[in-house]
Amino acid sequence: MGRYILRRLLQALPLLFAISVASFAILKATPGGPLAAYEGNPDFTEQDRLRLEHAFGLDRPLPIQYISWLGSFLTGDWGYGFASHQPVLLLIGERLPNTLTLMATVFVVVLLLAIPIGVTTALRQYSVFDHVVTGTTFTFLSTPTFWLGLLLIIIFGLQLRWLPLGGIQTPVAAFDLGDRLRHLILPVATISLVQVGSHVRFLRASMLETIGQDYMRTARAKGLAERVVVLRHALKNAAIPLVTVVALDIPELFVGALVTEQIFGWPGMGRLFLDAAFRSDYPVLQGILAVSSTLIVLSNLIADVAYGYLDPRIRYS
Amino acid sequence: MRRLAIALAAFGLVIAACGQPAPGAGTSAAPSATVAATASPTRGGTAIVAIWQFPATLAAHYANQTVTDIVDNGVIEGLAETNTNGDYIPTLAKSVPTLANGGAKVTSDGKLDVTWELKPGIKWSDGTPLTSADIKYTWEIWMKDPKVNNRTGFTEIASIDLPNETTAVVHYKSTYAAYPLNFSSLMPKKLLENEADISKTDYVRRPLGTGPFKITEFKTDESITLERNTNYRDPNRPYLDKIIFKSVPSSQVGLAQLKAGEVHAMWNLTEAQTPEVEKETSLSLLVVQGPTVERIELNTAQNKEYTDPNSVHPVLGDIEMRKALLYATPKQQIIDKLLFGKAKPGSSPVSQGWAAYKEPQEGYDPAKANAVLDKAGWVKGSDGIRSKGGVRASLTYATTTGDQLRERVQQVLVEEWKAIGVEVKIQNQPSSVVLSGSCTGKDPRKLGTFDLLMYASTPSIDPHSTILPRYHSKQIPTQADCSGQNYTRFKDPEADKAIEEAGGTLDIEKRKAAYAKVMKALNDAYVIIWMYDRANIDARVTGLQGLEGNVWRRFTWNIQDWWLKK
pTM, whole model, 2 decimals? Predict the structure, then answer.
């Protein structure tokens, strides 16, 4: 197992390198650029443009720009944002706790909802409950988050005035847990409603498959209580594929939710990325893309390893 | 249900009701809310201002966002500023040096010396005294730091002498006419002089100033808190204890929070949002005609990459065609219907200030447009589109993508122009391309790869830095020198001469006459359709008082005078 993990890690290196080259190339191929934002100023001259290009290192040949970025990135210097002049690591560090708060809450809420609902729908296949759940989950699965988010804002924020319209806390007040929770509800609901749907579908299918297995009949024949049969024998086996899906959600914990953060004015990673994208703020974009691609590669590995650990039938070679 | 509909509309899910006329449409768009000093101001309180963009930095010498000014107006000051008439008024200086009061002198070799006297006893908000050394330091930083946004004015300075603690004599290399606003954001020498790179210090988020407030908290993408500067020179100001700039996800959410009383003011509304504010008695609008002019520029040279300035556009090269397009442009209707009457028809690139040129372009008259084209030999084909000598009157029309207002204006104009037999195809691109301002960024204006291009531009307070780069024939961008901004490829020797004359004198009357000549020549050549002068629109709850419009500055410019009605 140790050798397998080591080999996968080594394989990941060229992959990550290729991803970073590709993302750098795509960013540079995008028309416009970080200096476009200055153009609105009537006092901004061609000399200013050339000076800033030089100050930001944009006048060097592309391969040199990439190599110098990669060199400092690997030594822990992620550069400075063009617009904010702040270190990229600091910018990410500021947003990360907010995104973790949001996405970890989503993560927990989704699992707490998806597991019982998924199990119940499978056990009561074709019951009214099952049909309602199936209908609802498909509805949310096919709902775009930007629409759902706005709808929730309109209903609970604007019309009923139960919940704040956005942001992470009321700015005037000191830290207040209740206030923070109230600000969490709508964005968490927006992302969760969509994600619960997919997890429920997944667990339902996998449970249905397990329930029909011979060992289930054996367990019942041994006289085990139905609760034990369902939780220990059925769910434990059915949850194996779910672990993979959940492991693949890990990058989202750090990268955040682009659309939802934007709609709710949530000061997280997704919004940082979007702002940086609009400004062609290359150092910030490169930093976030490096983090997210590394996490995706790692979480794939975690999923594979966890899968083998939970299911002894899987052998690595 | 109404609220739901409004919210949906403004969130862009439903097209906002653009068909219904706005209240007061077509009437003057002059400031509708100025100081109504009915009650005397009271001290204290916290005002919350919604901002739907968040400043990346608050350091004035790095910033390139309007929202930075909104916040900095409460913190950073300069030697002088502009009132709404465009007149210079002293801020930290005792008076604005002029030729008349002897503060500004033209030397025998035609250069300019300006003597600034600081008001006595002024302190930075950390308690250290403001001295003339800070003036010199500000110039040095602007010239030294490679990341400053621009060096306008500072490049014209040869040296600065400091005869004493409160006096600075600025020696310009030329007769730099816009000198009064050169030092509009002073920087603290004592705090920063030992920093190798200011961009890497806390100053970029918490700049130190002499203004009525100081920044006490900067929470990225959340809020910026300003508290009373106890060292402020006026013991009776500011009235407010605290101002919080609160980030809101969109201007529509900002408006909803304003209506709910969660914020006291909000920055930057669209014209389409104004009817919603006007309906609420608890809210008030601040509509200030700004100097920004939306225009459609007509390319008179061939539409191709690095176009030859002397080539002739097959369709737009004909002045009669350009005239016809102007005659078929219903500016006032567009303003009334799409901008809710909150703008004025444009007439020139300089609509405000001492050099303003307000002679209107000819009005909407499609019959005249048709007549002009008929006479010029543009004959309508079977599909209703004109052609002349085998050249079809077919043009492309570009603007920035994702701008609802501009897209609606385009729809109107495509129909109007089709009706006079000119086919126009919309070909929009992201603003980061269309307005990139560089040849490498593929700006079609720079390359010459456009027929009609619609965008807005704001003139500098001194008109020369607008008129020279944009309308002198030597300023046509080419592959060899991409720096010019004469995008229509306008060439007029008389205009060139007038621009050069204006640049060579400090005599305001002479300069004004020369610029007027240029702008008249420009309009007589029909190369630009001045669509409308756009207003800056902000909103407040009526309990927040003391706000005053200023054409040249953003609405927080007199934030020290703001107060909350108890």
Answer: 0.83
Would the CB atoms of A161 and B249 count as touching at under 8 Å?
Answer: no
Nearest to A43 among B260, B433, B460 (CB): B460
Residue B270 in contact with partner chain A when CB distance is under 8 A: no
For all residues of chain B together, what is the average pLDDT? 88
Q: How far apart are CA A110 and CA A123, in angstroms?
A: 20
Q: Is B305 on the interface with A (CB under 8 A)?
A: no
Q: Is the peptide bond prior to B238 cis by the omega test (within 30 degrees of 0)? A: yes
By the CB < 8 Å criterion, does A179 face chain B? no
For residue A263, the chain B residues in CB contact (below 8 A) are 249
- Which tokens go with B313? 């556009």
> Tens digit of pLDDT for each residue in A222-247?
888 888 888 888 888 888 888 888 88
Of B147, B430, B482, the CB nearest to A55: B147
Lookup: tokens for B350? 């300089």
Q: How far is B117 from chain A (nearest CA, A)?
A: 26
The string of DSSP letters for B286-331 reads EEEEEEEEEEEEE--S-SSTT--TT---TTTTSHHHHHHHHHT--H
Are B319 and B251 in contact by the 8 Å Cβ rule? The answer is no
Q: What is the mean pLDDT of chain A?
A: 87
Q: Which of B213, A78, B212, B191 shows the shortest CA–CA distance to B204?
A: B191
Burial class (CB in 10 A: 0-12, 13-18, 19+), B269: buried
Is residue B226 helix, strand or coil? strand
Which residues from B are below 8 Å from A171, CB to CB? 48, 219, 222-223, 225, 244, 246
Question: A152: which 2 tokens?
Answer: 């929730």
Find out whether B436 and B280 touch, Cβ atoms under 8 Å.
Answer: no
Can you name the residues that pair with B545 across neighbouring β-strands?
B563
Angle of CA points B378, B381, B387, to nearest 5°:
30
B396-432 per-position pLDDT tens digit: 999 998 888 999 999 999 999 999 999 999 999 988 7
Q: What is the DSSP letter of B271?
A: G
What span, in angstroms and rounded, lies between the C-alpha atoms of B381 and B310? 30
Q: pLDDT for A118-134, tens place per residue?
A: 989 988 888 999 999 99
CA-based max dimension of chain B? 80
Classify B284 as helix, strand or coil: strand
Q: What is the pLDDT of residue B76?
A: 96
Q: Are B413 and B359 in contact (CB under 8 A)?
A: no
Distance between first and last Cα of chain B? 32
Under-50 pLDDT residues of chain B: 1-37
Q: Which structure tokens are listed for B399? A: 């603007």
- Cα–Cα nearest to A206, from A135, A128, A307: A307
What is the bridge-based pairing of β-strands B394-398 and B452-457?
Answer: parallel
- Nearest one of A161, A265, A258 to B253, comparing CA atoms: A265
Any bridge partners for residue B164, and if so which? B167
Q: What is the pLDDT of residue B3?
A: 41
Report B:388-427 residues touching A (Cβ under 8 A): none
Chain segment A56-101, per-residue pLDDT in tens: 988 899 999 999 999 999 998 898 998 888 899 999 999 999 999 9
This complex has an ipTM of 0.84
Which DSSP category does B101 fall into?
T
Q: B110 — alpha (psi -120 to 50), left (phi > 0) or beta? A: left
Encode pLDDT of B53-83 as tens digits.
899 999 999 988 889 999 999 999 999 998 8
Q: Which pLDDT belongs to residue A173?
A: 65
- What type of residue sits at position A71? G
